[in-house]
Amino acid sequence: MVQDTAWEGYEEIPAWIMQGYGTMAMEAVEQLKGAGVERPTHVFVQAGVGSLAGAVQGFIANMYPDNPPTTVIMEAQVANCLFQSAVAADGEARAVGGDLQTIMAGLACGEANTISWDILKNHSSIFVSCPDWVAAKGMRMLAAPCKGDTQVVSGESGAVGMGLLATLMQDENYKDLRDAIGLNKDSIILLFSTEGDTDPENYKRIVWGNTKSC
Length: 214
What we know:
Layout lengths: L11 H23 L7 E5 L4 H13 L6 E7 L4 H8 L25 H10 L2 E5 L1 H12 L16 H11 L4 H7 L7 E3 L8 H9 L6
Helix pairs in contact: 1-2, 2-4, 5-6, 5-8
């Protein structure tokens, strides 16, 4: 059995996988330093069971122990087990049931990785529960960026960070959350796009709207 989620009695292999996920954070930080950025002010990372998020959070917490970036953990709204666990505020992980229907298939996980939850509950700043339209917005913006920016083909689970960030900065209905996170024009934000167009037809449907594909 090889899975990236952990439970009592099955923890060694998930821990190895999380170490691998941590490579993404290490490489991102090295690239930032190469571009003259000493540290990001914010890290947005998506979560299903939380293995990737926990790995990134663990690396960031160890990399910047004295001045850690604000970490925002994002989940699909119908599968927000980490969000629900954070709301309960008792340190215990919560599970989410149901059919977990979301376009963010990679995040459709209703039960937390026990190893990851121990990291996230102690170090993460904000947990956000995101409806599908947030991910769809991120996909469209990355596919058609501002002039001069590089296009990024990012799938449903990969683009939720861009969608949330844009929503927070553009929509005054979310001003309180934006202020709580501490976002402003001087923020340096690290996002992770964790998939491309893994479902090409759905990608076209979301990015192109009702336009028929070739």
